[in-house]
């Protein structure tokens, strides 16, 4: 779950109106995917060409494909996005159903719009999916940002000291098929309290990251 940096005071004061809507994957048309792919290239490109590479043409996903998306639009098109996918992960060998959150991005001119805005729309949808937990991962460099957000909203718990194993979305000749990352895990209690999140230091997606 990539989260770009904070925006300037000027952009905070001049933020355009953003309208949020929820879209199931089968509802999106080719034109929607093309617009989203361009948005992701523009949003992820400043973090490195490799991060924008998966979104060539009309491909609007990088690894696993989401089943539901929350998309923010303003007068200039797509402003922000977050996706969710129900899947079973393994925590130290035990299966757990979660809704994985990922593909978070904000258009560069709106950086700092905030994941909390998209989560206001996504959170009720996650509750309707009937899963016990929402789950996502972020880079350790974003710990302070997420800690402030979680402290204000009280919707999630941030966990460190956990390694997450994923497969690559594609097979590369010079890379192993599996990667292991030391990341921060974000857990959203939905149908069960956070006290019932399984203890463990290894999470296996058994598939690519959303």
TrEMBL record:
<dbReference type="InterPro" id="IPR003484">
    <property type="entry name" value="NodA"/>
</dbReference>
<keyword id="KW-0012">Acyltransferase</keyword>
<dbReference type="GO" id="GO:0016746">
    <property type="term" value="F:acyltransferase activity"/>
</dbReference>
<keyword id="KW-0536">Nodulation</keyword>
<dbReference type="Pfam" id="PF02474">
    <property type="entry name" value="NodA"/>
</dbReference>
<protein>
    <recommendedName>
        <fullName>Nodulation protein A</fullName>
        <ecNumber>2.3.1.-</ecNumber>
    </recommendedName>
</protein>
<comment type="function">
    <text>N-acyltransferase required for nodulation. Acts in the production of a small, heat-stable compound (Nod) that stimulates mitosis in various plant protoplasts.</text>
</comment>
<keyword id="KW-0808">Transferase</keyword>
<dbReference type="InterPro" id="IPR020567">
    <property type="entry name" value="Nodulation_prot_NodA_CS"/>
</dbReference>
<comment type="similarity">
    <text>Belongs to the NodA family.</text>
</comment>
<keyword id="KW-0963">Cytoplasm</keyword>
<dbReference type="GO" id="GO:0005829">
    <property type="term" value="C:cytosol"/>
</dbReference>
């Amino acid at each position: 779950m990539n989260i770009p940096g904070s925006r300037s005071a000027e952009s905070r004061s001049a933020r355009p109106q953003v309208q949020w809507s929820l879209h199931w994957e089968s509802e999106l048309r080719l034109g929607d995917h093309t617009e989203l792919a361009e948005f992701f290239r523009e949003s992820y490109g400043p973090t490195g060409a490799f991060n924008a590479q998966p979104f060539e043409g009309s491909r609007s996903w990088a690894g696993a494909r989401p089943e539901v998306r929350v998309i923010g639009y303003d007068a200039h098109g797509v402003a922000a996005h977050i996706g969710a996918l129900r899947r079973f992960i393994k925590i130290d060998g035990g299966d757990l159903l979660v809704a994985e959150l990922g593909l978070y991005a904000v258009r560069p001119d709106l950086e700092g719009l905030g994941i909390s805005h998209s989560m206001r729309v996504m959170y009720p949808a996650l509750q309707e999916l009937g899963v016990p937990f929402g789950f996502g991962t972020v880079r350790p460099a974003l710990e302070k940002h997420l800690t402030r957000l979680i402290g204000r909203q009280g919707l999630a718990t941030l966990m460190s000291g956990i390694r997450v194993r994923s497969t690559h979305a594609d097979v590369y000749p010079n890379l192993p098929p599996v990667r292991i990352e030391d990341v921060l895990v974000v857990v959203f209690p939905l149908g069960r309290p956070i006290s019932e999140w399984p203890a463990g230091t290894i999470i296996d997606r058994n598939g690519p990251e959303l």
